[in-house]
């Protein structure tokens, strides 16, 4: 059919190739075609941040990106970050601080936090809040999430619990 397109990209280090309808979003491609359901969809209009993934290292809304636009690129989801153990300390901090309730927002929160914590220095609480301004949480009130990210940033700065930062193969 003419509205089908071939999409070939790397997802969490593995090359995948599928023929999908041209208007398939990257979020649906990940969730439905690849069954990587760690990436959530909420608003599907770029507002809530539940669908954030890394596209060639940059955080993007997978609900606003067509899968075919990601063809030839490297995508990393929360499953990939988890498998590489680069957010193990962050996930532990979320757990310790009770930073999630229903958990719907958590993959997007972790994506934003991963990106923020990849930058040099220890972000202030204001900077953490600013970074999270595109991530909605209907449960926690954000305070515990900010606490967990701040704790992780401080621990990493002090050399504690720092995960390996090897790059995923592009
Ligand atoms: S589902 Fe993409 S921003 Fe809400
Ligand atoms: S923990 Fe429920 S939306 Fe954030």
Automatic annotation (TrEMBL):
Residues 5-81 form the 2Fe-2S ferredoxin-type domain. Pfam families: Fer2, Fer2_2. Keywords: 2Fe-2S, Iron, Iron-sulfur, Metal-binding, Oxidoreductase. InterPro entries: 2Fe-2S-bd (IPR002888), 2Fe-2S-bd_dom_sf (IPR036884), 2Fe-2S_ferredoxin-like_sf (IPR036010), 2Fe-2S_ferredoxin-type (IPR001041), 2Fe2S_fd_BS (IPR006058), Beta-grasp_dom_sf (IPR012675), Diverse_Oxidoreductases (IPR051452). PROSITE patterns: 2FE2S_FER_1, 2FE2S_FER_2. This is (2Fe-2S)-binding protein. It comes from Tardiphaga alba.
